[in-house]
Amino acid sequence: MRTKIYLFLFLILCGFNVSAQEQKMTAAEISQFKEDVNVVAKKIKTLSTDFVQYKHLDFLSKDIETSGKMVFKEPALLQWQYKKPYNYSITFKNGKILINDEGKKSAVDIGDSKIFARINKLIVGSVSGNMFDDKEFTISYFKLKGQNLAKFIPKDVTLKKYIKQIELTFDKEEATVVQVKLLESSEDYTRIVLKNKVINAKIDDSVFTN
Amino acid sequence: MQKSTIQFLLINCFLAVFLISCGSVTKNYTSKKLDKTSYTVPYFADSKTDYVYKTNISVYGNELSGIFIAKKINDTTHRIVFTTEFGNKLMDFEISENEFKVNSIVSELDRKILINTLKEDFRLLLKKQYLIQEQFENETSDIYKSADGKRDNYIFISKNDQKLEKIVHSSKTKEKFTLLFNSENNIFAEKIQIIHQNIKLKIELNYFKSE
């Protein structure tokens, strides 16, 4: 009897899953979607947004939740500022990573590190949404309810060791990124939800320091 | 000739005894009658709790920070993961009294000496039960000695509130590394420090509540 109930529940859940499932885009939809995103991304000179980060590890009972603010300024100034539950900021600036860990400041030179340069480009790209580079990634495109989804699988072997797949979810109307999901394996991932996005407000260079 | 050899041996013996007593870890403690034969550590014992700590590691002047996660996955084993603040996994271990498995480690940290050091540190940090052979005391703590292979662990329990405050891992003559605990309720440690005496390595863990 109990098995039957479980089976029933399982089938219901499966049913929900199917209805919420992503649908592959057609070739025409893909080119329209890419164009929409590129038009918006090109207009982005500055961007600031609140974010909530959920670290999911398969064996934990709860995701680890941290949150803060992200600021980006063209062409490559980027800062992630964690405010809760601890103060920690990481700034990418002129080939350097500047860190402020609860007031303790440090800097790392990444000028020569190709992997860091690539990760930096990837983060900037994923926030602005402009990373449809077929040379770097195998990309697939899906439709969701009110949203679009692009999945990027790195072609580079080194990068692949760190990130198995990146998933960007876009708001269909605004064509901007609302969620970034970095998958390390099928069980473990980091999901970053972006909200209260402000585009092209004036941001001073002096913000980008530790 | 023979006389001087005996003298030489005697002096050596004295020297040896002197050095041992000088180097002995327990030299500042007073021996005491055993009041228990085993001690169970309260921290990291609950299989329902995700133990999540902001971590700072200082190693030979270099600073590293990230998030330390420990979870008891069955009766004998803990899973330990260390990630960056961004969430990238740097190390992923499974550890018990007798088993140790590296699930993954980034190539930059994949060094035998580092892995073995962390293995020793974490094994002691997560060890649940100690069998006690000797007992000492100083002004503030009851000190229990527990054999650990060729080495010993000294467990410091505060006389004031019976909290586990410190574990010293030591050879017969020298302290190797020390675990320091700060705990409000003696069930959960909010702050933990792992300090090495023979290498310049210090690991500090500060518990944080996820939002």
UniProtKB/TrEMBL annotation, chain A:
<keyword id="KW-0449">Lipoprotein</keyword>
<protein>
    <submittedName>
        <fullName>Outer membrane lipoprotein carrier protein LolA</fullName>
    </submittedName>
</protein>
<dbReference type="InterPro" id="IPR004564">
    <property type="entry name" value="OM_lipoprot_carrier_LolA-like"/>
</dbReference>
<keyword id="KW-0732">Signal</keyword>
<feature type="signal peptide">
    <location>
        <begin position="1"/>
        <end position="20"/>
    </location>
</feature>
<dbReference type="Pfam" id="PF03548">
    <property type="entry name" value="LolA"/>
</dbReference>
<dbReference type="InterPro" id="IPR029046">
    <property type="entry name" value="LolA/LolB/LppX"/>
</dbReference>
UniProtKB/TrEMBL annotation, chain B:
<protein>
    <recommendedName>
        <fullName>Lipoprotein</fullName>
    </recommendedName>
</protein>
